[in-house]
Design brief:
The chain folds into 2 domains: about 1-155, 3-Layer(aba) Sandwich (Alpha/beta knot); about 170-245, Trp Operon Repressor, Chain A, CATH 1.10.1270.20. It has helices at about 10-15, 20-30, 65-75, 100-105, 120-125, 145-155, 200-220, 220-225, 230-245; strands spanning about 1-5, 30-35, 50-55, 60-65, 85-95, 110-115, 130-135, 185-190, 190. It is elongated. It is built from 9 helices and 9 strands. The structure holds ligand 9WO. Ligand 9WO binds near residues 90 and 138.
Length: about 250
């Protein structure tokens, strides 16, 4: 079982998240366990203080070392084999589908979700193993990033997805963007489903989807193709589509 301990001043956010969809089912099936720790429960004073003014002045509060250190220690006590402590912040290394396995190595992650202006640097120095970021933007706190980590790792666990479909079929797993999807009706407000998808020709459908994924990636995220070794068949699919007038249709930027 994969374990997550989330240290957060707003555990109710994580409770709601853990109560729906794939993550909920993974909890019910015993594939994952999510432990919530509120730094307020580890505060030393009667006011249950968890933040204070910043040394050096300026507006905004900083999360204090002791409540966080004691919350991390509490998570450690439930983990005989040890934990890997992660702070979610814009200063961290950027998480991506290819970097997820680095977190997957650790069966018990402690995810620290900061609030305010962040946490006292001495906690990061002494208690944090790694800092990870979702990308170059600032949130109001680390909870959404913690949920993103749990979600992305959980759906990769064998048996977590409802059907027998593999998570490997999803966007990114082959280094390409996803192909377009369609469902009923066949025509909606004059918009038709591509005929090949109605043909029943499974080989032709697979080829079309691969081609769509290649063209989309080429047009929207050419950076992803740089590190992607395309087979001769993929090259041919891409070249054929790009040479057609309107090839790849509305993905065209120019
Ligand atoms: C607040 C702030 C206020 C004035 C000037 C600069 C500032 N930076 C921050 C800040 O980074 N606050 C963080 C809020 C403190 C740590 C938790 N917070 C957080 C995590 N915001 N965004 C993230 C995050 C985490 C992972 N991936 C993307 C964003």
């Amino acid at each position: 079982m994969r374990r997550f301990s989330v240290i957060t001043l707003f555990p109710e956010l994580l409770t709601a998240f853990a109560g729906v969809g794939i993550v909920r089912r993974a909890c019910e099936r015993g594939l994952i366990d999510i432990q919530l720790l509120n730094p307020r429960d580890f505060a030393a004073d009667a006011r249950r203080s968890v933040d204070d003014n910043a040394y050096g002045g300026g507006p905004g509060m900083v999360m204090m070392v002791q409540p966080l250190r004691r919350a991390i220690a509490a998570a450690r006590r439930t983990a005989p084999a040890g934990v890997h402590v992660v702070y979610l912040s814009p200063q961290g290394r950027t998480l991506s589908q290819p970097t997820l396995p680095l977190l997957e190595r650790h069966p018990h992650l402690v995810l620290l979700a900061g609030r305010y202006e962040g946490v006292d640097e001495r906690l990061i120095e002494q208690d944090i193993d790694e800092e990870w970021s979702l990308g170059d933007f600032v949130l109001s706190g680390g909870e959404i990033a913690a949920m993103a980590v749990i979600d992305a790792l959980t759906r990769r666990l064998p048996g977590a997805l409802g059907d027998e479909r593999s998570a490997l079929a999803d966007s990114f797993e082959h280094g390409l963007l996803d192909f377009p999807h369609y469902t009923r009706p066949e025509i909606v407000d004059g918009q038709e489903v591509p005929a090949v998808l109605l043909s029943g020709n499974h080989a032709a459908i697979a080829l079309w989807r691969r081609q769509q994924a290649l063209v989309r990636t080429w047009r929207r995220r050419p950076d992803l193709l740089v590190n992607c070794v395309l087979s001769a068949a993929d090259r041919a699919l891409l070249d054929k589509c790009l040479s057609e007038p309107q090839g790849g249709s509305k993905d065209a930027q120019s």
